[in-house]
Amino acid sequence: MKQTMAQSDIHNPDPGSNSTVLKIGGLTKFFGGLRAVHDFDVEIKQGELVGLIGPNGAGKTTIFNMITSIYPVSAGSIVFKGQDITYLPAHEVTHLGIGRTFQKIRIFPNLTVLDNVRVAYHPHARYNMFDGILRSRRFSRGEQEMTEKAQEFLAVFGMEDLQDTLASNLPYGAQRRLEIARALATEPDLLLLDEPAAGMNPREVVELMELIHFIRDHFNLTVFLIEHQMRVVMGICEWITVIDFGEIIARGTPKEIQNNPQVIEAYLGSQAIRMVA
Amino acid sequence: MKIRSLPTWLTAGLFFLVVGVGFQIVSGQGWLSGYWQQVIMLGTLMAISALGLNLKYGYAGLFALGHAAFYGIGAYSSALITKDWVVGWSGNPAGGLAGILAIEVGFILAVVAISYFKIGHLRNLMQDKLSRWLTPFEASVLATVAMLLAGGLTIVVVGGGSGWLVRQGVLALVPPVLGALPIAISQQAIFLLALLSGAVLAGLVGFLVGLPLLSLTYDYLCIATLGFGIITYVFFNNADKLIPTMKGARGMVNIPNLTTWPWVFVCAVVALVVMRNFIYSSTGRAILSVRDDPIAAETMGIDAFKFKTLAYALGCAYAGLAGGLYAHLYSFLHPSNFTWLKSVDPFVMVVFGGVGSMTGTILGAYTFELLLEGLRVLPAEFIDWRYVIYPLILLTVMLFRPQGIMGTKEWGFLKLPRITKRKHEEVPAGATQAEARASEGQED
User: Fold this and answer.
1) Do the beta carbons of residue A252 and residue A1 sit within 8 Å?
2) B283-333 tens-digit pLDDT
3) Lower Cβ count inside 10 Å, N or C end of chain A?
4) Is the domain of A151 the same as that of A196?
5) What stretches of chain A show up as alpha helix (H) in DSSP?
6) Is the pLDDT confidence value at B35 over 90?
7) How, if at all, do strands A49-53 and A247-252 pair?
8) DSSP label at residue B293
């Protein structure tokens, strides 16, 4: 089952398309005495679309929060493009090229759609605070550039007509799209999607699956996603890691995972196994 | 529609010109009593202070209650400067050393602020080096201790040294320069210096207080900043032990009456324009994003703590500027004007006008001051009822309009600048993703 994880040395990443983007080893998280994640490891290569599934409370989001440094790591290491990011602050992790979305939407509700995207460009702003206060030429040029880039992004997501709308006034599906657009605006190499299909109706889910494929190819990304809906994971992921109670219980292609008795047990309970058998 | 064709900055400029000059003429003609002139000036300078609080609370979402402390720091430090140099002025201002102290302290704090960033960086480097031989814990403890020592030394040597240099420089340069000027002009120059140093000092203190406190949120931050406000109040009360001119609990008297309408008005307009340009820039958007969702802002690559500290320090500087104007308006300072209860005043103004609205904040400031003073027209035996009437008005407004008078709306040039929409010949309105996708393909 582990043959999908080809051996490769992170210190000499392949220059080709097969180089490792993210390598996690021995990742562990304790919340007080509760062990939320134990000895999690994964290795993701350039351009892959990888899924992370597991029943409620299995520790999936905790893993994402540790990758993006929102939670401090209890033990283990996270290496991104050959650089150890285990203890970097969250905003620096983003600067290195990891973008993410959240399970519970976290757009900036009181900012317009356009400003939600423009915030992502702040670390690359070509002007400083004083240019802004004095409205210098550098300000207007930098602002123009940011605005155009943000509008291009919104156009890709079909939201350019909503640019002046407050983000909180958007319908649910559009908020999800905005969150993805905003994450992409940070120009990531690795995109972490935390349950992107949560709360969507079947039609929206199909659209979302198309969208994920599209952004992966269009922006040349590697995607690591958590999903609850089996249909989505099975439909788009190239390979999957399954965790339960913070520990890896299976790993493999969607086909293999579907027939894995341990996975079925985790999802449906041990009685289901007996019924299948 | 014709009127709209005027650029907004021109409309705003005309508006400010008319208001500024108009008030000057009205008061010059004696159509307005000195008392009401003072009330309106007080309202204007409170608007500056409230704008600072609006930056902290409305824009950065920091529920901080120590605003009056910074107002007081600005008031006392600028009063020290003018009292020594303007009042004590008789061709030989060398006796005025307390004023220089305020500037000196400012410089030392600036050194502390700068070394904070540099030393934090050095500490990380050292920890990296040490962790080769020691466990991470030992390395971090050792690096911290070393850096605390180095930091203390830097502050004493560099801060003290620069403070001493500043004192020598000021004593050598300022008296001859000011002596060469006519006395009226030199007084105004000293006043400008005093206002600026009051604002900078308040901002720097805000920055240094913010460093440990701003990792807190909501009520916790409120209580912590409240604590700082009480410390400052106690300091003002006993300040005569340290700086005799401050007179402690007896109140500082004889501060030159330099605050005039042009000073207040120009300061307020500059403060407003700076605030507007600041908040409608990339930095301002970063601050707003941290308010809306600090975690999401971090994942957008924004250092949430840095922007909270920036907003806090700038808000404190606004309070300091207002304090400087206040000190020279009534020529009397008493610590009781800077208790934590006085921190509530700007809060009332901001919440009453609309949290996160500059227009609302200014309206709130004027309403608050005019209401409180205007109710003095009540007959003498009812005069204390104004503290019942004005809270009742507040209650009513909050019940029927909890978002404040303006909500988050703005007027005129304070509005969010409109961004012209991109011409979308490729993507039709309401395009689905599939269509957007196809059209994106055509663009390539």
Assistant:
1) yes
2) 999 999 999 999 999 999 999 988 999 999 999 999 999 999 999 998 888
3) C
4) no
5) 60-67, 90-96, 113-119, 129-134, 137-156, 172-185, 202-218, 230-236, 254-258, 261-268, 270-276
6) no
7) unpaired
8) -
Q: Let me know whether B101 and B65 are in one domain.
A: yes
| Contact (Cβ atoms closer than 8 angstroms) between residue B20 and residue B263 | no
Q: Number of structural domains, chain A?
A: 2
Alpha carbon distance B264, B255 (integer Å): 17
Alpha carbon of residue A50 to chain centroid: 10
**Shared-domain flag, residues B2 and B125:** no
B430/A127 CB distance under 8 A? no
Helix (H, G, I), strand (E, B) or coil at A249: strand
Continuous segment of H or E residues that includes residue B46 = helix B34-53
On whether residue A6 sits in a domain, the answer given is: no
- What are the tens digits of pLDDT across the range A184-198? 999 899 999 998 888
Of B293, B298, B416, the CB nearest to A90: B298
**The pLDDT value given to residue A94:** 92
Residue B392: pLDDT above 80? yes
Can you give the pLDDT at residue B431? 42
CB contact under 8 A, B301 and A133: no
User: Which of B282, B288, B424 is the best mutation test for A, with the most CBs of A within 10 A?
Assistant: B282
**One domain for residues A194 and A261:** yes
Q: How far apart are CA B125 and CA B114, in angstroms?
A: 17
A94/B289 CB distance under 8 A: no
Provide DSSP, B206-238. Answer: HHHHHHHHTTS-HHHHHHHHHHHHHHHHHHHHT
B438 in a structural domain: no
A268 domain residue, yes or no: yes
Task: State how far the Cα of A3 lies from the Cα of A243, in Å rounded to an integer.
Answer: 18
Kindly list the distances between the CA atom of residue A189 and the CA atoms of A44, A121, A254, in Å, as whole numbers in the listed order. Answer: 12, 16, 24
**pLDDT of B99 over the 70 cut:** no
Whether A1 is in a domain gets the answer: no
pLDDT at B249: 82
In this predicted structure, the answer to whether residue A270 has a pLDDT above a threshold of 70 is no
The Cβ of residue A178 has, within 10 Å, a number of other Cβ atoms equal to: 25
* Residue B413: inside a domain: yes
Q: What is the Cα B33 distance to its own chain's centre?
A: 30
CB A175 within 8 A of CB A147: no
Residue located via tokens 């000011």 = B178
Q: What is the mean pLDDT of residues A15-36?
A: 82
Lowest mean pLDDT of A99-103, B246-250, B357-361, name the range: B246-250
Q: Are residues B232 and B281 in the same domain?
A: yes
User: Does residue B41 sit within a domain?
Assistant: yes
Residues of B in contact with A94 (CB under 8 A): 298-301
pLDDT of residue B97: 60
- Could you tell me if A137 and A233 lie in one domain? no
Range of the domain at A29: 19-107+188-276
pLDDT above 80 for B262: yes
Asked if residue A176 is part of any domain, the answer here is: no
